[in-house]
Amino acid sequence: MEKIRVGISQCLLGENVRYDGQHKQDPYITGVLGQWFEFVPVCPEVECGMGVPRKRIQLEGRVEAPRMVTIETRNDLTTLMQAWCSRRMPELEGEALCGFIFKRKSPSCGVERVKVYSAENEAPENKGTGLFAAAFMHHFPELPVAEEDWLHDPGLRENFIERVLALKRWRELIADGSGASGLVKFHAHYKYLLMAHSVPLYRELGRITADLKNRPIEQIQADYYERLMKALALRTTVKKQVNVLQHMAGYFKKQLNADEKRELHEVIERYHEGHVPLIVPIAILNHYVEKYDERYLKNQYYLNPHPMELHLRNHLD
Ligand code: SF4
Fold this sequence. Notes:
By secondary structure, the protein is an alpha/beta fold. The chain has 14 helices and 8 strands. Iron/sulfur cluster binds next to helix 2.
Protein backbone atom coordinates (compact mmCIF):
# COMPACT_ATOMS: atom_id res chain seq x y z
CA MET A 1 0.00 0.00 0.00
CA GLU A 2 1.33 3.42 -0.95
CA LYS A 3 2.42 5.40 2.10
CA ILE A 4 0.79 8.73 2.90
CA ARG A 5 3.05 11.79 2.90
CA VAL A 6 2.87 13.66 6.20
CA GLY A 7 5.16 16.49 7.34
CA ILE A 8 6.70 16.27 10.80
CA SER A 9 8.87 18.24 13.20
CA GLN A 10 12.18 16.52 12.59
CA CYS A 11 13.15 15.99 16.25
CA LEU A 12 10.12 13.66 16.66
CA LEU A 13 11.78 11.20 14.29
CA GLY A 14 14.77 10.82 16.61
CA GLU A 15 17.11 13.15 14.76
CA ASN A 16 19.46 15.24 16.88
CA VAL A 17 18.28 18.68 15.78
CA ARG A 18 17.20 20.17 19.11
CA TYR A 19 18.97 23.21 20.55
CA ASP A 20 20.98 20.92 22.87
CA GLY A 21 21.85 18.39 20.15
CA GLN A 22 19.22 15.93 21.44
CA HIS A 23 16.01 14.62 19.91
CA LYS A 24 12.44 13.96 21.04
CA GLN A 25 11.71 10.70 19.28
CA ASP A 26 8.13 9.51 19.69
CA PRO A 27 8.11 5.69 19.39
CA TYR A 28 4.39 5.59 18.55
CA ILE A 29 4.95 7.92 15.60
CA THR A 30 8.05 6.21 14.25
CA GLY A 31 7.00 2.64 15.09
CA VAL A 32 3.24 2.55 14.49
CA LEU A 33 2.31 5.49 12.27
CA GLY A 34 5.56 5.03 10.33
CA GLN A 35 4.06 1.83 8.88
CA TRP A 36 1.55 3.94 6.94
CA PHE A 37 3.09 7.40 6.74
CA GLU A 38 6.05 8.55 4.69
CA PHE A 39 7.38 11.39 6.84
CA VAL A 40 8.68 14.64 5.35
CA PRO A 41 10.90 16.06 8.12
CA VAL A 42 11.23 19.78 8.74
CA CYS A 43 13.26 21.49 11.46
CA PRO A 44 12.59 25.20 11.08
CA GLU A 45 15.34 26.30 13.47
CA VAL A 46 18.04 24.25 11.74
CA GLU A 47 16.77 25.01 8.23
CA CYS A 48 16.67 28.77 8.82
CA GLY A 49 20.33 28.65 9.87
CA MET A 50 20.36 28.64 13.68
CA GLY A 51 22.58 25.54 13.79
CA VAL A 52 23.03 22.70 16.34
CA PRO A 53 23.69 23.27 19.19
CA ARG A 54 22.17 26.74 19.40
CA LYS A 55 21.03 29.28 21.95
CA ARG A 56 17.66 28.59 23.59
CA ILE A 57 14.83 30.74 22.30
CA GLN A 58 11.41 31.78 23.52
CA LEU A 59 8.43 33.77 22.31
CA GLU A 60 8.00 37.24 23.74
CA GLY A 61 5.59 40.15 23.42
CA ARG A 62 1.98 39.94 22.27
CA VAL A 63 0.38 36.48 21.96
CA GLU A 64 -1.11 37.41 18.55
CA ALA A 65 2.24 38.56 17.09
CA PRO A 66 5.10 37.30 19.27
CA ARG A 67 8.81 37.86 18.69
CA MET A 68 11.30 34.97 18.70
CA VAL A 69 14.22 35.89 20.96
CA THR A 70 17.30 34.04 22.34
CA ILE A 71 16.87 33.85 26.11
CA GLU A 72 20.37 34.73 27.34
CA THR A 73 21.82 36.80 24.49
CA ARG A 74 18.59 38.71 23.62
CA ASN A 75 18.98 38.23 19.90
CA ASP A 76 15.71 38.81 17.96
CA LEU A 77 15.36 36.03 15.35
CA THR A 78 11.78 36.79 14.28
CA THR A 79 12.67 38.20 10.86
CA LEU A 80 15.07 35.33 10.13
CA MET A 81 12.39 32.75 10.93
CA GLN A 82 9.58 34.57 9.10
CA ALA A 83 11.68 35.05 5.97
CA TRP A 84 12.57 31.36 5.98
CA CYS A 85 8.88 30.43 6.44
CA SER A 86 7.95 32.55 3.39
CA ARG A 87 10.52 30.72 1.27
CA ARG A 88 9.69 27.25 2.64
CA MET A 89 5.88 27.29 2.23
CA PRO A 90 5.89 27.17 -1.59
CA GLU A 91 8.38 24.28 -1.41
CA LEU A 92 6.08 22.42 0.99
CA GLU A 93 3.20 22.87 -1.47
CA GLY A 94 5.18 20.68 -3.85
CA GLU A 95 5.48 17.93 -1.20
CA ALA A 96 1.74 17.13 -1.50
CA LEU A 97 1.45 16.63 2.25
CA CYS A 98 -1.76 15.14 3.68
CA GLY A 99 -1.06 16.44 7.19
CA PHE A 100 1.60 17.69 9.60
CA ILE A 101 2.64 16.46 13.06
CA PHE A 102 4.17 19.25 15.16
CA LYS A 103 6.31 19.17 18.31
CA ARG A 104 4.26 20.64 21.11
CA LYS A 105 5.30 23.65 23.20
CA SER A 106 8.09 24.63 20.80
CA PRO A 107 8.42 28.37 20.00
CA SER A 108 8.79 27.29 16.35
CA CYS A 109 6.62 24.18 16.06
CA GLY A 110 3.97 24.29 18.82
CA VAL A 111 0.37 24.52 17.55
CA GLU A 112 -1.19 25.79 20.77
CA ARG A 113 -0.39 26.64 24.37
CA VAL A 114 3.17 27.79 23.63
CA LYS A 115 4.51 30.09 26.34
CA VAL A 116 4.72 33.76 25.42
CA TYR A 117 6.65 36.00 27.81
CA SER A 118 5.79 39.67 28.08
CA ALA A 119 8.16 42.37 29.29
CA GLU A 120 5.74 43.69 31.89
CA ASN A 121 4.56 40.37 33.18
CA GLU A 122 7.02 37.73 34.46
CA ALA A 123 4.54 34.85 34.20
CA PRO A 124 4.15 33.66 30.59
CA GLU A 125 0.81 33.25 28.87
CA ASN A 126 0.27 29.69 27.58
CA LYS A 127 -1.66 30.83 24.55
CA GLY A 128 0.92 31.18 21.79
CA THR A 129 1.62 29.31 18.55
CA GLY A 130 5.12 28.62 17.27
CA LEU A 131 6.13 30.85 14.35
CA PHE A 132 6.55 28.01 11.86
CA ALA A 133 3.32 26.27 12.93
CA ALA A 134 1.42 29.56 12.63
CA ALA A 135 2.81 30.25 9.14
CA PHE A 136 2.06 26.68 8.07
CA MET A 137 -1.55 26.74 9.28
CA HIS A 138 -2.06 30.12 7.64
CA HIS A 139 -0.69 28.86 4.32
CA PHE A 140 -2.50 25.47 4.43
CA PRO A 141 -5.72 26.24 6.35
CA GLU A 142 -7.47 22.95 5.55
CA LEU A 143 -4.52 20.61 6.06
CA PRO A 144 -4.94 18.37 9.14
CA VAL A 145 -2.41 19.16 11.87
CA ALA A 146 -1.67 17.54 15.23
CA GLU A 147 0.82 17.83 18.05
CA GLU A 148 2.52 14.58 19.03
CA ASP A 149 0.61 14.21 22.30
CA TRP A 150 -2.75 14.45 20.50
CA LEU A 151 -1.80 11.18 18.84
CA HIS A 152 -1.81 9.46 22.23
CA ASP A 153 -5.50 10.32 22.73
CA PRO A 154 -7.69 7.78 20.85
CA GLY A 155 -10.35 10.32 19.83
CA LEU A 156 -7.97 13.07 18.69
CA ARG A 157 -5.76 10.53 16.92
CA GLU A 158 -8.67 9.01 15.02
CA ASN A 159 -9.91 12.45 14.02
CA PHE A 160 -6.48 13.48 12.69
CA ILE A 161 -5.97 10.24 10.78
CA GLU A 162 -9.48 10.25 9.35
CA ARG A 163 -8.80 13.71 7.89
CA VAL A 164 -5.38 12.69 6.58
CA LEU A 165 -7.00 9.75 4.77
CA ALA A 166 -9.85 11.91 3.46
CA LEU A 167 -7.30 14.30 1.99
CA LYS A 168 -5.40 11.42 0.39
CA ARG A 169 -8.63 10.07 -1.15
CA TRP A 170 -9.61 13.58 -2.25
CA ARG A 171 -6.28 14.09 -4.01
CA GLU A 172 -6.72 10.73 -5.79
CA LEU A 173 -10.20 11.80 -6.88
CA ILE A 174 -8.89 15.07 -8.34
CA ALA A 175 -5.98 13.28 -10.02
CA ASP A 176 -8.18 10.65 -11.69
CA GLY A 177 -10.10 13.38 -13.54
CA SER A 178 -13.51 11.78 -12.98
CA GLY A 179 -15.08 15.24 -12.47
CA ALA A 180 -18.74 15.48 -11.53
CA SER A 181 -19.46 11.74 -11.53
CA GLY A 182 -16.42 11.09 -9.32
CA LEU A 183 -17.56 13.75 -6.87
CA VAL A 184 -21.05 12.24 -6.60
CA LYS A 185 -19.54 8.81 -5.93
CA PHE A 186 -17.10 10.24 -3.37
CA HIS A 187 -19.95 11.96 -1.54
CA ALA A 188 -22.01 8.76 -1.53
CA HIS A 189 -19.11 6.73 -0.09
CA TYR A 190 -18.54 9.33 2.63
CA LYS A 191 -22.23 9.64 3.57
CA TYR A 192 -22.22 7.92 6.95
CA LEU A 193 -18.75 9.03 7.97
CA LEU A 194 -19.79 12.64 7.34
CA MET A 195 -23.04 12.13 9.24
CA ALA A 196 -21.01 10.85 12.20
CA HIS A 197 -19.37 14.30 12.28
CA SER A 198 -22.14 16.69 11.22
CA VAL A 199 -25.54 16.03 9.67
CA PRO A 200 -26.03 19.73 8.69
CA LEU A 201 -22.66 19.83 6.88
CA TYR A 202 -23.39 16.48 5.24
CA ARG A 203 -26.61 18.01 3.88
CA GLU A 204 -24.78 21.15 2.75
CA LEU A 205 -22.27 18.98 0.87
CA GLY A 206 -25.22 17.09 -0.64
CA ARG A 207 -26.62 20.36 -1.98
CA ILE A 208 -23.26 21.08 -3.64
CA THR A 209 -23.26 17.70 -5.40
CA ALA A 210 -26.91 18.16 -6.46
CA ASP A 211 -26.11 21.27 -8.49
CA LEU A 212 -23.32 20.29 -10.85
CA LYS A 213 -24.43 21.92 -14.07
CA ASN A 214 -24.36 25.64 -13.33
CA ARG A 215 -20.74 26.18 -12.28
CA PRO A 216 -17.28 25.02 -13.39
CA ILE A 217 -16.37 21.71 -11.74
CA GLU A 218 -13.17 23.22 -10.27
CA GLN A 219 -15.26 25.76 -8.33
CA ILE A 220 -17.63 23.05 -7.11
CA GLN A 221 -14.72 20.84 -6.03
CA ALA A 222 -13.11 23.75 -4.15
CA ASP A 223 -16.37 24.44 -2.26
CA TYR A 224 -16.87 20.76 -1.53
CA TYR A 225 -13.29 20.30 -0.30
CA GLU A 226 -13.48 23.25 2.08
CA ARG A 227 -16.68 21.98 3.71
CA LEU A 228 -15.52 18.36 3.70
CA MET A 229 -12.44 19.22 5.78
CA LYS A 230 -14.52 21.49 8.02
CA ALA A 231 -17.04 18.69 8.66
CA LEU A 232 -14.40 16.06 9.40
CA ALA A 233 -12.61 18.41 11.80
CA LEU A 234 -15.71 18.36 14.03
CA ARG A 235 -15.52 15.71 16.72
CA THR A 236 -17.95 12.81 16.57
CA THR A 237 -19.99 12.00 19.68
CA VAL A 238 -21.66 8.84 20.92
CA LYS A 239 -25.04 10.40 20.05
CA LYS A 240 -23.97 11.11 16.47
CA GLN A 241 -22.54 7.59 16.11
CA VAL A 242 -25.77 6.05 17.42
CA ASN A 243 -27.75 8.03 14.84
CA VAL A 244 -25.53 6.61 12.07
CA LEU A 245 -25.71 3.06 13.43
CA GLN A 246 -29.51 3.23 13.60
CA HIS A 247 -29.74 4.53 10.04
CA MET A 248 -27.58 1.63 8.89
CA ALA A 249 -29.60 -0.91 10.88
CA GLY A 250 -32.62 0.33 8.91
CA TYR A 251 -31.17 -1.22 5.74
CA PHE A 252 -31.83 -4.69 7.14
CA LYS A 253 -35.48 -4.28 8.12
CA LYS A 254 -36.61 -6.89 5.63
CA GLN A 255 -33.77 -9.40 5.93
CA LEU A 256 -33.44 -9.76 9.71
CA ASN A 257 -35.81 -11.82 11.81
CA ALA A 258 -37.24 -10.44 15.05
CA ASP A 259 -34.45 -11.92 17.22
CA GLU A 260 -31.67 -10.57 14.99
CA LYS A 261 -33.27 -7.09 14.93
CA ARG A 262 -33.58 -7.09 18.71
CA GLU A 263 -29.98 -8.23 19.12
CA LEU A 264 -28.70 -5.51 16.75
CA HIS A 265 -30.67 -2.77 18.52
CA GLU A 266 -29.54 -4.04 21.91
CA VAL A 267 -25.89 -3.87 20.85
CA ILE A 268 -26.36 -0.30 19.60
CA GLU A 269 -28.00 0.55 22.91
CA ARG A 270 -25.15 -1.08 24.86
CA TYR A 271 -22.72 1.09 22.88
CA HIS A 272 -24.91 4.13 23.63
CA GLU A 273 -24.69 3.37 27.35
CA GLY A 274 -20.91 2.91 27.22
CA HIS A 275 -20.86 -0.84 27.86
CA VAL A 276 -19.22 -1.87 24.56
CA PRO A 277 -16.85 0.01 22.21
CA LEU A 278 -17.95 1.33 18.80
CA ILE A 279 -16.23 -1.53 17.01
CA VAL A 280 -18.84 -4.01 18.37
CA PRO A 281 -22.00 -2.66 16.63
CA ILE A 282 -19.86 -1.91 13.55
CA ALA A 283 -18.66 -5.53 13.43
CA ILE A 284 -22.26 -6.79 13.56
CA LEU A 285 -23.38 -4.39 10.84
CA ASN A 286 -20.45 -5.45 8.70
CA HIS A 287 -21.44 -9.08 9.18
CA TYR A 288 -24.95 -8.32 7.84
CA VAL A 289 -23.55 -6.22 5.00
CA GLU A 290 -21.55 -9.26 3.85
CA LYS A 291 -24.29 -11.79 4.53
CA TYR A 292 -26.97 -9.86 2.61
CA ASP A 293 -24.60 -8.30 0.08
CA GLU A 294 -25.81 -4.77 0.94
CA ARG A 295 -24.06 -2.88 -1.88
CA TYR A 296 -24.64 0.69 -0.75
CA LEU A 297 -23.26 0.08 2.74
CA LYS A 298 -20.38 -2.01 1.40
CA ASN A 299 -18.88 1.11 -0.15
CA GLN A 300 -19.21 3.27 2.96
CA TYR A 301 -15.86 4.38 4.37
CA TYR A 302 -17.59 4.34 7.75
CA LEU A 303 -17.86 0.54 7.58
CA ASN A 304 -15.04 -0.12 5.19
CA PRO A 305 -12.14 1.93 6.50
CA HIS A 306 -8.48 2.02 5.65
CA PRO A 307 -6.57 -0.68 7.66
CA MET A 308 -5.07 2.13 9.75
CA GLU A 309 -8.53 3.50 10.61
CA LEU A 310 -9.71 0.00 11.45
CA HIS A 311 -6.79 -0.56 13.81
CA LEU A 312 -7.38 2.77 15.55
CA ARG A 313 -11.11 2.22 15.97
CA ASN A 314 -10.42 -0.73 18.24
CA HIS A 315 -9.45 1.80 20.91
CA LEU A 316 -12.46 4.11 20.48
CA ASP A 317 -15.31 4.34 22.96
S1 SF4 B 1 10.62 21.46 17.84
FE1 SF4 B 1 10.79 22.10 15.72
S2 SF4 B 1 12.42 23.61 15.70
FE2 SF4 B 1 12.59 22.52 17.63
S3 SF4 B 1 14.04 20.86 17.21
FE3 SF4 B 1 12.00 20.05 16.85
S4 SF4 B 1 11.71 20.34 14.68
FE4 SF4 B 1 13.40 21.66 15.24
